[in-house]
Design goal:
920 residues; 18 helices; transferase; RNA binding; plastid
């Protein structure tokens, strides 16, 4: 039976086998009852008294031991211990024994003013045996760590955010390989960011804190785990760089491992060569080794003994029985190429093994026997004999001599049979690959599955691609939009962060032919989506060249290994189909490994597998995903299921992955139909223009009224303004885009003394003159003395509101007010006749530029405003320019200017004055 270690004498030492002592009287009682069908009542009473005394003595011993444990625990809790560990060019502070003293392991780790608190706790009783270690990890960033509160209605941290989920995965993945098989006590790791200085990132610290807390706890893990981040600034590798240093880094590598091996790496880079990545891994491994050595010394001083006696593994005899029953059939089943038939055949074979063992009496259905127990010591007694417990006999009883009955065969639980069957299946799969060089689908270790790629399947989507590699398939869809479509990130720092590019990955149960839950994205989906997103990010154009927000959706429609890398390939093709001017094409591939080939008939050299299947991922020793092109790497992620790998093995995997990427890129170039590489007619149009920063408020207006009125008047989707003077107009059609562009240009135009404005409307009349609108929202005063060449008693005598006339700008005062003149444009030789009719009829199509004024010597501008507020002009370009939309599309090429700063006109009559109207 399993025993849970308890404490014995000395500080934080185990008491020997409390649970086993508890079970011994029960077992003896059951065995005696099972073999005493002819016992008399007197013997039964004596046996019960004996068992009662045994329980009483055990209770006394247990209470004494618990008292010793409590005293020892209190002594340890009263003395916190801390240590400074050098990491890179600074130290981290690790402290235990002060906070969280009731947890199995608790540690506080500090870097600068960033503080992480992590605990490890385990359940009191074991869970049902399964094929995975029952470990759960939760990581949370408290807003109070940065002096903030949640922005929502409830001032409490809500559900786990995506980046917190990613850090949970970073903590979980390196811990699992160090857990010993057969330990089924549910274990929980909780990690909080209690202080954040905005300079030292918490994720690498959280990995190290979890590794230290696990090492201090009773959980029986094999080695200490630590994690570091490595950056590359120039040609120098930096361990645990600050956030400011990471802004200039070409590499973002997070590495976790033990002092002897690498357990997990994940990172992103800008087409970094394989040799540079290996150098970074070596630097990170050296730093991890230093941390682990210091932590081991800490564990010797204040760590708790491990629960090694709680480990329960199936007996070796069960492995032999399963191989005898299913060995030959497994060889045939593993040769089935297709996933679903192979999975069903393996499941049927498992049921067959269970049924055979049940018929032979090897599988126990009695809860009393546990999962595995040998029963050779059952006793046979005569009528007047009784079992002696702990050597005690009642007065008057006769000493007895137990006689052994026949041996009962081994009894196994059904769960143990399933666990052993899975391991035997994995063994036969590895043996087939190593001995024969053939995998389940018939490929060699380096061979890539057949690839098929298609674009343009969804006519209304902005861009889409269907990428198929063997039995793995991804449908990638691209949607383009403005900043309103950007993803807002709520982080610890008090700044709004928006992502203009994000990839969302979904893995419905139908992709593996199963029925399952459909709801919020799982942690696996979030992690795979982020990996594919970071892989594609380096090939995107700058925002100045392509001012769109880009969303990629990858829906896995079939899955048999490496669906995240299929998302990279499909996403790249979908971006090209959407007309995004990507820098190059990239591909992704997943690598597997059989580490100890000597056990399966090889020479002991690790065997690297390219483009692994799902079964090879589950039964293999490594899952190494690498994305990039034939020049360098953009993203990578490695999980190890054994004790770790070395740099030579990683080098071999990287070089083999590079060959695989080249092959996949060649197949992607054969995509049929190919990507359109043009904007879809259903994609929104975005125009970028530049105005003087101080004129942004004119566009926005009081309380945003002006910009809202422009949107309503023109029908555009949105108008985005920035403090640096950049204005982005988003519209569904070209006509509305041109209207809003003309209005904004006129609003922000800078008038120059001497400019001429034609066909301008009189907005209001005062006794001293008329107010004339020379551009939307921009008016000037034409004094009564400047309205006519002749003397006027009242302005109303000659003009009324709504009349149109040509005016010239003759003065701009200190307040920015404009003074206009109509008289300056009238012929001197021909006196003007007063009339109440509009003067603009004969000048409707007059675009003549007036001559230079002799006193100013500056070029004049003729601006004609139509009734709809549009304008046209001819003048020399100014320094301020409108930034044209930089999109190659038939829908926009004919209407966008070839040269920035020139006149922009359209068939609708709208125009931008010199690319940007100038406003005082």
């Amino acid at each position: 039976m399993l025993t849970n270690p308890s404490f014995h004498g000395g500080p934080l030492q185990f008491i020997p086998t409390v649970r086993s002592e508890l079970c011994c009287p029960i077992q003896l009682h059951r065995r005696s009852l099972a073999s005493s069908t002819m016992e008399n009542r007197r013997n039964r009473r004596r046996r019960r008294r004996s068992i009662s005394r045994s329980f009483t003595q055990f209770s006394i011993r247990a209470s004494e031991d618990v008292s010793v444990l409590a005293a020892d625990s209190a002594a340890v809790q009263a003395s916190p211990f801390s240590v400074r560990i050098p990491v890179g060019d600074r130290h981290i502070m690790v402290e235990t024994g002060l906070i969280g003293r009731q947890a199995s392991g608790a540690v506080t780790i500090r870097d600068g003013e960033t503080i992480i608190y992590t605990t490890v706790c385990l359940a009191d009783v074991p869970s049902e045996p399964s094929d995975f270690f029952p470990l759960s990890v939760h990581y949370q960033e408290r807003f109070s760590a940065a002096g903030r509160t949640s922005g929502g209605f409830f001032k409490r941290e809500g559900r786990t955010k995506d980046h917190e989920v990613l850090i949970c995965r970073l903590i979980d993945r390196p811990l699992r390989p160090t857990m010993l098989k057969g330990f089924y006590y549910e274990t929980q790791v909780l990690s909080w960011v209690f202080s954040y200085d905005g300079l030292h990132p918490p994720d690498a610290l959280a990995v190290t804190a979890a590794g230290i807390a696990m090492a201090l706890s009773e959980v029986p893990n094999s080695e200490v785990v630590a994690g570091v981040r490595v950056g590359l600034i120039g040609e120098k590798f930096i361990v645990n760089p600050t956030i400011q240093e990471m802004e200039n880094s070409k590499l973002d590598l997070l590495l976790a491992g033990t002092k002897n091996a690498i357990l997990m790496i994940e990172g992103y880079c800008d087409f970094l060569p394989e040799d540079k990545l290996l150098e970074a891994v070596e630097v990170g491994q050296d730093a991890v080794r230093g941390i682990c050595n210091e932590v081991e010394a800490l564990v010797l001083k204040c760590g708790k003994p491990k629960m090694l006696d709680a480990i329960k593994v199936p007996p070796k005899e069960l492995y032999k029985l399963v191989e005898e029953i299913a060995g030959s059939e497994l060889v045939e089943v593993l040769q089935i190429k297709n996933k679903i038939p192979r999975r069903k055949a393996i499941s049927s074979l498992e049921e067959y093994v269970i049924s055979i063992l049940s018929e032979k009496g090897y599988i126990s259905t009695m809860e009393a026997f546990g999962s595995t127990e040998t029963m050779p010591d059952l006793l046979e007694e005569d009528e007047d004999e009784e079992v002696v417990v702990d050597g005690e006999v009642d007065e008057g009883d006769v000493h007895i001599k137990p006689v052994a009955r026949k041996t009962v065969p081994l009894l196994f639980s059904e769960v143990d049979v399933k666990l052993v069957f899975k391991e035997v299946t994995s063994k036969f799969l590895r043996k087939r690959i190593v001995e024969r060089g053939k995998r389940s689908d018939g490929r060699s270790p380096q061979e890539i599955r057949s690839i098929d790629a298609r674009c343009g399947l969804l006519p209304r989507a902005h861009g889409n691609a269907l990428f198929t590699r063997g039995e793995t398939q991804s449908l990638a869809v691209v949607t383009l939009g403005d900043k309103q479509m950007a993803q807002k990130i709520d982080n610890l720092v008090d700044e709004d962060e928006y992502k203009r590019f994000y990839l969302q990955y979904s893995f419905p149960p139908s992709c593996v032919g199963e029925v399952g839950r459909v709801g919020a994205p799982s942690r696996r989906e979030i992690g795979h989506g982020m990996l594919a997103e970071r892989a594609l990010e380096p090939i995107l154009p700058p925002e100045d060249d392509f001012p769109y927000t880009i969303r990629v959706e990858s829906t896995i429609t079939e899955s048999n290994g490496s669906s995240s890398m299929a998302s990279v390939c499909g996403g790249c093709l979908a971006l090209q189909d959407a007309g995004v001017p990507v820098k190059c094409s990239i591909a992704g591939i997943a690598m597997g490994m059989v580490l100890d080939t000597k056990e399966f008939g090889g020479d002991g050299t690790p065997l690297i597998l390219s483009d692994i299947l799902g079964s090879e991922d589950a039964s293999g020793d490594m899952d190494f995903k690498v994305a990039g092109n034939d020049v360098g790497i953009t993203a990578f992620q490695m999980d190890i299921k054994v004790g770790g790998i070395t740099l030579p093995i990683m080098k071999q995997a990287l070089l083999q992955a590079k060959d695989g990427r080249k092959h996949i890129l060649a197949e992607m170039s054969k995509c049929s139909p190919p990507p359109s590489r043009q904007l879809s007619k259903y994609a929104p149009l975005i125009h970028v223009m530049k105005v003087k920063p101080e004129k942004i408020n004119i566009i926005i207006g009081s309380g945003g009224k002006k910009v809202k009125s422009i949107i309503e008047e023109t029908g555009v989707e949105a108008i985005e303004t920035q403090d640096d003077g950049v204005v982005k107009i988003t519209a569904k059609d070209l006509s509305s885009l041109e209207k809003s562009k003309a209005i904004i240009s006129n609003l922000t135009m800078v008038p120059i003394v001497g400019d001429i404005y034609r066909n301008c409307e009189i907005k209001s009349i005062a006794p001293y003159g008329a107010f004339v609108e020379i551009a939307p929202g921009r008016e000037g005063l034409c004094h009564i003395s400047e309205l006519s060449a002749n003397w006027l008693a009242k302005a109303e005598d000659a003009f009324k509101v709504g009349d149109r006339l040509d005016v010239k700008l003759i003065e701009i005062n200190d307040k920015g007010q404009l003074r206009l003149s109509r008289r300056a444009l009238l012929p001197d030789a021909e006196p003007e006749k007063q009339s109440t009719k509009p003067r603009s009829a004969s000048l409707q199509n007059d675009n003549v530029v007036s001559p230079r004024t002799p006193d100013k010597g500056k070029p004049k501008k003729a601006v004609t405003l139509s009734k709809d507020g549009s304008a046209s002009e001819r003048a020399e370009p100014l320094k301020e320019k409108t930034v044209p939309i930089k999109v190659s599309s038939p829908a926009t090429d004919k209407t966008q200017p070839k040269k920035s700063g020139g006149n922009i006109s359209s068939k609708s009559g709208n125009a931008v004055v010199n690319g940007e109207a100038k406003v005082v």
